[in-house]
Amino acid sequence: MFELEQRILMLLLLAGLLHARPRMSVWAKLGVAAAVLLALVAPAVPLGFPAAWLAAALIPLLLWQSAHRLANARWPISRAEIAVWLFIAAAIGFMLAAVSGMRMSAALLFGVLAASILWRGTEEAPAPASHLGQVGTLALCFLLAEIAPFVEAPGRYLLGLVGGAALGALCGYLFVHLARVRAESGWRLAAGPVQAYVAYGLGALFGLSGVAAAALGICVYVAYGSRRGLFPDGVVRPQPLDARPVFIGAVAVLAYTGWQVHVPLTPQLLAECVLGIGIGFLGIALGRRFGGSRFGGRMSYRGSLLPLGLLLLPALLVWPRETDLGGIPVAAALVLAWALTLGAKGALTPLLNLYAMVDEAETTIPQPDYLAGGTRVGEIMKGDTPRVRRDAPVAEVIEKLLAGGAGCVAVTDDEGGLEGLITESDLFIKQERLPRADVSYPSLFREPVKPDRLPEVYAEIAAKSVAADIMVPCAVSVKRHHNIRHAIRVMAEYGCAHLPVIDGAGGGFRGVLTRSDIIRAFSRETKS
Fold first, then answer.
1. For labeling, which of 62, 233, 467, 501 is most exposed (least CB within 10 Å)?
2. What are the pLDDT digits (tens) for 165-218?
3. Cα separations (Å) of 481 from 188, 487, 490?
4. DSSP label of 374
């Protein structure tokens, strides 16, 4: 494998590993740091490995590890966030041009890439991810796997990019249904990562963009799967890099690439690293001051040095200054990454509406003929259910819940389609289960909390969360013309206290039917 590809692969692995959460957290950090430091050691025996094989093995895995971020990246981006991001990019670019003599265009392009990687490394859950943090990883994927076809035949490759995205959308849709059919087996957990590999492989096989196919397939699988009940607790599973064997294997690959790269530490390179870390730390301070809680809000300045050092330092160390990687490939990779990110965001809602029209009969429980007639759902349901957007703060959700009479708040998308419901129980302490362990713990909005400390910490934790973090996706619904006997059967079978009511093409949300509505209807009949 060429040295250039080794360096890009090393940066891509770092971006993925620093978002993994293996049980051995301390040893994991030490292992990643040691693997990075191997870049300073000359390899005793230079080894090679086909770049295409490593790219095919790692790109789908790393994209899936970021599945929730890819599917739920937030738009629009505030002016303050854009300003901080541009400051980091420009400062790093000008520093490299001044110290190392890089061409200004190439230095600024690297600054943009470094700013995106750093931004992603310091964004924190549960806040929605930003597109500013996704572009760097996607650009590295394009640089590693597909930049040569783009440079050689741009027009043909752009057609392949669109075709790959369409292929990924189809794969995501089909695998959601496969996962629902095999819900009782381990296939349901494996379907997501398998879908990413299938989409990538088919894209490469048919001469399309495998990166676009895998990325959009993951977006569709997560967003559409959430609507179909694949992730009832809102947590995208599995996270392969969180498993110890997979994480150790990825660190081993990182150590191998770092050892093979070998970057001699010169005074000039050391000065670049020190100045780069200083710029990055200043960027983190500005991001926390002006970029909101999404940028390291809960992370201390001391704690932020770890992702800063493990992301920005290797980027400065191993970036190929002396190779033939000019400004055009980097610019092309960044343009492709932005095009894919924004294109996926724009296409996701229409795709979800199209899928809802295609299989509306599955999401809306059909009513048997013998239950037709009589009192209809539309006659007793609540049509004035409070609604919020995915990015609505918890304070707004609470205000609307208390002011409304439906006992819940609906979370809707830009087109008015229902994405989930929030009830009182979602705004209170719940028992969460640890993955791969028969252990549960009390949590508020998926953050561990002691019940007796709730009065002191409720406002603080609520301020960090938005509606999308706490909503429960809706897997079933009924229509307004359905008989209440049918609605009662659905509520009893699926354990629904609040049953969504939809109508029209694309499943437009009309309101909810509650147990109180049904009891109230029975009460009127009893009095009459």
1. 233
2. 899 989 998 998 888 776 555 677 788 899 999 999 999 899 898 998 998 898
3. 34, 11, 15
4. S
Q: CA distances (Å), 340 to each of 138, 167, 196, 415, in order?
A: 9, 14, 16, 22
Q: What angle do CA 346, 349, 352 make, to 5 degrees?
A: 140
Let me know: does 460 contact 483? Beta carbons within 8 Å.
Answer: no
170, 301: one domain: yes
Q: Are residues 376 and 304 in the same domain?
A: no
Q: Are residues 396 and 255 in the same domain?
A: no
User: How far is the C-alpha of 333 from the C-alpha of 161, rounded, in Å?
Assistant: 12
C-beta of residue 144 within 8 angstroms of C-beta of residue 5: yes
- Ranges 102-106, 162-166, 170-174, 300-304: which has the least confidence: 300-304
At which of 309, 329, 352 does a domain end?
352
- In DSSP notation, 99-162 reads HT---HHHHHHHHHHHHHHHHHHHB-TTSPPBGGGTHHHHHHHHHHHTHHHHHH-HHHHHHHHH
In the structure encoding, which two tokens stand for residue 334, read together?
Answer: 């960044």
Q: Which of helix, strand or coil describes residue 296?
A: coil
> Given the DSSP bridges, would you call strands 478-479 and 498-503 parallel, antiparallel or unpaired?
parallel
Query: Within this chain, do residues 66 and 101 fall inside the same structural domain, yes or no?
Result: yes
User: CA of 519: how far to CAs of 44, 251, 314, 379, 386, in Å?
Assistant: 78, 59, 64, 13, 21
Average pLDDT, whole number, for the chain?
75
Give this prediction's pTM. 0.67
Higher pLDDT, 402 or 14: 402
Any idea which residue has 């076809």 for tokens? 149
Same domain, 388 and 336: no
The predicted model gives 242-261 an average pLDDT of: 78
pLDDT of residue 197: 93
Report CA-CA distances (Å) from 9 to 13, 256, 494, 521: 6, 11, 46, 63
Whether pLDDT at 414 is above 90: no
Looking at 333, 352, 371, the residue that finishes a domain is 352
List the domain range (segments joined by +) for residue 440: 359-527
Beta strand extents in 323-475 (DSSP E only): 387-388, 408-412, 418-423, 430-433, 440-444, 447-448
Residues 369 and 307 in one domain: no
